[in-house]
Amino acid sequence: MQMWVYIVRRLLLLIPVVLGVMTITFILVSGIPASQRCFSSFGPPPNHGGEEAVAAYYAHCYKVLGLNVPIYQQWAIYMGNTLSFHWGNVGNFTAAAGAVPIITGQPVTTVLGWLLPYTIELALLSLAIILIIAIPLGRLSAVYRNRPVDQASRVMSFSGFAIPSFLLGSLALIGAVLVIYNYHLASVCDGPFNALHGSWPAAGCMPGSVPSNNDYPPWLISGVESTPTGFPTIDAAIHGQWIIAGDTILRMIIPAMIIAYGSIAVLLRFVRNSMLEVMNLDFIRTARAKGVTEAVVTKRHAGRNSLNVTITVLGLTFAFFIGGFPIIEEVFGLNGVGRALALSVLQPYDFGLIFGTTILFTLIVVIANIIVDVVYAFLDPRVRLG
Fold first, then answer.
1. I need a surface site. Which of 16, 48, 219, 329 has the fewest CB within 10 A?
2. CA 289/CA 116 separation, integer angstroms
3. Quick one: pLDDT at residue 225?
4. Is 62 a domain residue?
């Protein structure tokens, strides 16, 4: 089978997965009472005008939300709106719950377009930490089996499985705040907590504050939308705001490490076991018998041949990796898609954000797994024959 045929087949498999997630989400949300959905979208019913005003309120709500038609028609309308990216607007209640004010009343697609770069930056940093730590440490554990480095990696792996990300993130945030407070590392304007919490410093604490736009730089609108790329760290560097660019990276380091910790625990063990399996194969013994140095055997022969399993496991753990974003972004106050999802499921619910963030995360996970499958097919052409 040619590679392009394999890629097309994998892309076609994306369709039923996305449709299935959309349907499951619709079924779960449909279980919420209609009155709650009306309250979330239009606020409380009027307290004046009597029963006629309340009846008119619900009639308008049912018509706008499509609740006055059978459930299968509601599903069809929902699928049509979702596939055409008509995901509604962000409600005032989500903004009141702690989101940045600019998202209030904006289309969900627009808001997610603003917030997605923040999540992508955090994801790339987390992924870099996973690859930098898990693969070398897993290989060292295999080479120095049952030695101190192997024992330390086991402790790290078991703790990664045992400690929930929200608990680890809260403990890390508290510890970092105490360190900053004791060593006076934060400015008077920021304070120990604000120096770590949130994607950007508080308004008025910017270097060279600008009197307009709530003291944010002109290229950063209310702390969310940035220009020209949409990625805040890159835009800060483009505009010469190196202090702000460095600040955003520093604010992401601890959350990225917390998100990466659980995935490192999984990937590390698989890298170690895969290396041990490869190092016991005949071609490794042949290479050693020919006088090839142990470093070359470990790096070129065993290391490269163990990448297949490593990449496969990385794809399988990506959903677990992405699943930590809503909690960690909310704990650290980061303006990302994960935080939007966390706020959307607080009562009263924001159904537009629930649908939008769920579909977006589904697409990210599915596309990431397709990329992993394609990379695996390049490394092992036998996969394309299946």
1. 48
2. 53
3. 80
4. no
User: How far apart are alpha carbons 60 and 42 in whole angstroms?
Assistant: 10
* Pair 267, 160: CB distance under 8 Å: no
d(Cα 349, Cα 352) in Å, to the nearest integer? 9
CA distance 200 to 337: 16
Give the chain's domain count.
1
- Which residues in the chain come in under a pLDDT of 50? 93, 95-99, 188, 209-212
Rounded CA-CA distance 378/87 in Å is 37
User: Can you tell me the distance from the alpha carbon of 161 to that of 129, in angstroms, rounded to the nearest whole number?
Assistant: 17
Query: For residue 371, which of 41, 126, 10, 3 has the smallest C-alpha distance?
Result: 10
Rounded CA-CA distance 126/256 in Å is 4
- At 218, the amino acid letter reads P
Residue 206 lies in a domain: yes
Q: What is the DSSP letter of 226?
A: E
Q: How many CB atoms lie within 10 A of CB 237?
A: 16
Whether 306 is covered by a domain: the verdict is yes
Report the CATH number that the domain containing residue 229 is assigned in CATH.
Answer: 1.10.3720.10
Among residues 274, 281, 250, the alpha carbon closest in space to that of 134 is found at 274
- Please count the residues of the chain: 386
| CB contact set of 51 (below 8 Å; sequence gap of 6+) | none
pLDDT of amino acid 97 = 46
297 lies in which domain range? 108-385
- Going through the chain in order, the beta strands assigned E by DSSP cover 220-221, 225-226
Q: What is the predicted pLDDT for the residue at 296?
A: 73
CA 172 vs CA 167, 176, 252: distances in Å: 9, 6, 13
Angle at 145 between CA 142 and CA 149, to 5 degrees: 90
Sign (positive or negative) of CA dihedral 242, 248, 254, 260: negative
Residue 199 inside a domain? The answer is yes
3-state DSSP assignment of residue 232: helix
